[in-house]
What we know:
Elements: H1 3-9, H2 23-34, E1 45-50, H3 53-62, E2 74-81, H4 87-104, E3 108-112, H5 118-124, E4 130-139, H6 155-158
Antiparallel strand pairs: 1-2, 2-4, 3-4
Helix pairs in contact: 2-4
Amino acid sequence: MDVFEAVRTVLAVRRYAERSVPADVVRRIVEAGRLSASAQNLQPWHFVVVEERTTIRRIGEIITTGHYAAGAALAIAVTIVKDKRIAVSDGSRAIQNMILVAWSEGVGSNWMGFGRMPEIEALLGVPETHQTLAVVAFGYPAEELGRGKKQRKPMNEIASRERFGTPFA
């Protein structure tokens, strides 16, 4: 799948099939995060890949908006260096790369939580130098999804040319 097709069709997945993700696919997903651009090439992230079912279920209990994580094949906690203002955007870029690469491999995902998660940090042994930005659940979708069926505002409402309000068309 080409990059634009992945962007055009990716959807949040909250129900996962009981099927593991092959190690080579997991490695590509993590590699997509590692290869992300970052300000001054500081790479202020560390990814904790969790495939242990008990830990994944516990993550789903801790992140109240992410109970569906319990059914995921894996979860990746994206941690960032504390007190680095740009780390939030750099970590977010890494997350988006991982989501798109996963999708291109047929693996769905969903971003859970945002910002400090002390319970997750304790569970995963995150050192004091880092804080959790988000946890992303990954797995094969439990059901066929309508790829690309998104409800988005029209282009003329979200983009301008040269100056705000000048139609992009």
